[in-house]
Task: structure prediction
Amino acid sequence: MTITKEVFVDLHEKYNKVVKLLDESKFDPDNEPYTSKYAAKQILIGMKASLENLLRNQSLESAERIKLIAMLGTVYFHLGMVSIDTEELSNGENFLQKCEDVIQDYIDSPVMIMVTLNMYNQFGILWSQRDPEKSKVYLEKAEKLYVNFKTLSAPPVDISSLFCQNAEKDTNLAWKNFEKVHTFTLYYLAQIYGALKDALKSSVYCHITLQRQLDSNDYDPIDWALNAATLSQFFMEKNGFKQARHHLAASSYILDKYEETLNAITERNEDYDAKMEVFKHRSADIARCWAKYGLLLLAKSKERLLNHTDDIDTNCSMLSDLSNMSLDSEPTVTLEELQNLDFVSLNLSSYETQITYKFILTIQDARLVFLNVQTWLQKAQSYYTLETLASDHIEIIQDQTQLYLNLLFFEDNPENQAKLHKRRIDLLENIIKKINPQYYLQYCRQIWFELAQTYSDILNIKSDKLRELNERPSPHVLNKINHLIEKSISNFYCFIESFKEAGKTEFPKKINSDFEKAFLQAYFHIGALNSRYITLDKKAQLANVESSYDAYKKIFDYWKLNDNVKELIPMELGICKEMVTLLPVKIAKLTQEIS
Result:
């Protein structure tokens, strides 16, 4: 028996209507969000009944039966998708299971392969939240099926062509969608490996997904650039600075090509303005990612030098290239995969040569990184202004101060070190004057604490220099040192006072755990700083010792109410206990001398 043309025409029309309804569903009103999907579901149920009735005929030719089974599997697949989208997860799972049952004997046939791959992908999505391991099983089935099918000579049949009589003719569309479905499989596998805490394997799948999107020229430039830049952040956190730089370079390359496309547009309307705004926004984000790369490269270089002061080339195992890393005994990634984390189709040399991927050893190399990071931060800051996007602007300022701090490690000259600290202070004091603690309290606390530490760091440099001179300091030098102490203490107190609840004069008995350690350390620093004032005035000395005692006593009293202090600041607590005992003796002695 041969199925009549009219039967296919009817099924084709109904299928096209389903596709149209599903596409239009995104425009459904908020109060009836599933109207179009429910309408599509009714059509699909009718198609299911028609196909099941046709399959009851025992005299069907083999090819016709397989095609009808593929069509029925497609209908079950769409019923499953619609049910899941309308929050009927149990029904969705049942429909997908029926799809698998129906097509089971022909899953790798050309007419069935696209239905199968889409079904396995949807199973993977369905189980991704509830059982990532089960999700991975389905997605790996899809991956294996794709690889096996590629070895065959027969082209796949696209789902959209199943309901036409001449399905086998549209092979170009079929191959294109076949590859696209596999790209989705790899993308979902990247998410699942991330959920399973196998971040390295996840990153490999992310890279392959990006590469396939490039190869097929099927991507949104902004999304692609952001995804590549995001992936770079993972690589650099794993010390894969070579791979991180490459992905950032690719990100910038794609953005620059997109800018050329925008500039070629002659009609400057609202649509153009919206695209340009998105471009500027994301360009600033990519610049921030480049800045983070440089900041972390300096920080990791510092860590590497501190941990291996002797014969670093022999004793240090830290690498900046993932392709040279040593794999575990049972790795989920292969060395070959790590050696192929690049975009061979893109010429990125002009972007990559801006900054090194190797660990920094000298002040000259550090300055080159510093200058690049400074440029990227300035670019980001031109978009993220204090007036429009204050939180991001403040964070960029904090990155700038961190950049000076990272460069400072490689600087041997104390005078230059002090100048770098002074630039940090200028940045921080300029921003703290412009922001309201009521709205940006968390940032203000961070800035106050950093300012206090920075003034203290300059104090240490000046004090060291004073000791090296081994001569009587001038009044100007003494005033400078006392001023640094005063500014450091003042900022620590600003930080501390911010923890008083509105309208109250007392602190809460328990400080928020996120700030508890810093709160106690601030008091400890105040106690130590008060003892560093240089003065011959006995009354001033007495006031300083009393202030020092009060600060240590605050920690001591807090510890009496909160036993966890001994875990937070064990060394400082030991000193506090000692000072609370010793300083009253010193206070009494000074009081007696003054009398």
